[in-house]
Amino acid sequence: MGTTTVSRARIEPILFHTINGIFMLLLAIVTLYPFLHTLTISFNEGNDALRGGIYLWPRSWSLQNYKAIFISGTIYHAAWISVARTLTITVLGVFLTSMLAYTLAQPQYIFRKIIGLIFVLTMYFNAGLIPNYFLIKSLGLLNNFWVYVFPGMVSAFNLIVIRTYIRTLPSGLVESAKMDGAGDFTIFVRIILPLCTPVLATIALFIAVGSWNSWFDTFLYASSDLKLSTLQYEMMKLLGSTMNSNNDPGLLAGANTNQTKAMVTPASIRAAITIVAAVPILFVYPFLQRYFIVGMNLGSVKE
């Protein structure tokens, strides 16, 4: 009896880890396959891809899909605008949202509940597209770079996450700092911000991904100024022009009469656009992954 119990105690952990490993491997394959398939299509000649049967390796290698994207000179300036708007709103958004969250986390602040309620209501009620447009216009932000920054600089969701995280910090840290003569801003910058690194990295990732992938605000508020066009908006226009090009299944991309005409299709262009849009985030995410996991776990715990 004792031998059977010992044997079972040894086998169960091995069996569990084996099954768990197989399951996680299958999950990784299911998760990665769509991206790898998209990457493969982006490097495959467009018309050939229409035949199907392409999975994880291009059948007919071609860079025409990427040439069709970068052949326009405006794409580089648009990429710079996207980088500038993403960095600006991420830095300002994280700093200002965390500052407001610190204020609302202080129990002695008498207006913390009503201000918090106002922010929560914005998560459920919205004025709508037309009133927002007229608000942006009245503020003089149409065709202005700051239209990418000011409207979404403080998010109610991000505010709640950071405030919840700050409430988990020991209150004695703030009290001892005040006894030493430190002001609220000094406490916030030198004590609260360093301790909030995990949740701030999480929020920074949220803001950066949302800003980088945004194109609709460019369409609404800055489409008449080419100098303010963003990478996502330019690629959206490229995809639209490809799909509507005389109902032709392919679009000529950089071929001449002396060469084999390399064609791109809406499907291949869409794949290349997806890769171009995702690569910057893929480079950033690994550096924030460990903070992202810790920040979401701690920032979601309610007292």
Automatic annotation (TrEMBL):
TM stretches of this protein: 14-36, 79-102, 114-134, 146-166, 187-209, 267-288
Keyword Ligase: no
UniProt membrane topology term: Multi-pass membrane protein
All residue ranges annotated as the ABC transmembrane type-1 domain in the record: 79-288
Alphabetically ordered keywords of this record: Cell membrane, Membrane, Transmembrane, Transmembrane helix, Transport
Keyword DNA repair: no
InterPro entries: MetI-like (IPR000515), MetI-like_sf (IPR035906)
Protein location: Cell membrane
Classification via PROSITE patterns: ABC_TM1
Family: Belongs to the binding-protein-dependent transport system permease family.
Protein name stated in the entry: L-arabinose transport system permease protein AraQ
Classification of source organism: Bacteria, Bacillati, Bacillota, Bacilli, Bacillales
Encoding gene (name): araQ_18
